[in-house]
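Task: sequence in, structure out. Protein: CDP-diacylglycerol--glycerol-3-phosphate 3-phosphatidyltransferase.
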Amino acid sequence: MTTANKITILRMILVPVFMAFLLVDSVACRNVALVVFILAAVSDAVDGYIARHYNQISTFGKFMDPLADKMLTTAAFVVFLAYGRMSPWALMIILFREFMVSGIRLLAVSEGKVIAASMLGKIKTVSQMVAIIAAIILMQPIFPPVAAKMTTHTLIWISTVFTIISGLDYLIKNRHIFSAKQQVEEE
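Result:
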């Protein structure tokens, strides 16, 4: 197993640790959650750099790296929803996009192809991670609750717009996968 893939697995292991600390209503625990989230988010860039720089790009990494990101961001969004800091509609849109992209990737794999993350997908992930970091900081008691919630909702909706754009881009760029599947089924 490559170093890049080990870092991806570590990021997946950090997800429940992050979520556990974020769920505790304590300034100290939220600070730990913030640090864990930032470490996990930075590890995404690190494993990508290592994979490219040391020629460790693998099918496992192409599939699991985006999945690890989805696990991390979804964990945060679920907690924000529970705390009333995220719209259920925003979460539904984000989850719909993630399931759609995962489904397209599974179809591609069934044809022996692996689809790497696109630049718009990476921008989507960065916008979500920035929104999450800001939202965790805004959970601190020093911020006025109403302003913090409004700011969090706004940042999450901005990242949701990037989610929609990247999902449509992904669907359009990979529409040939549906055509190929349909042709095989008709034959």
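The chain is about 85% helix and 0% strand.
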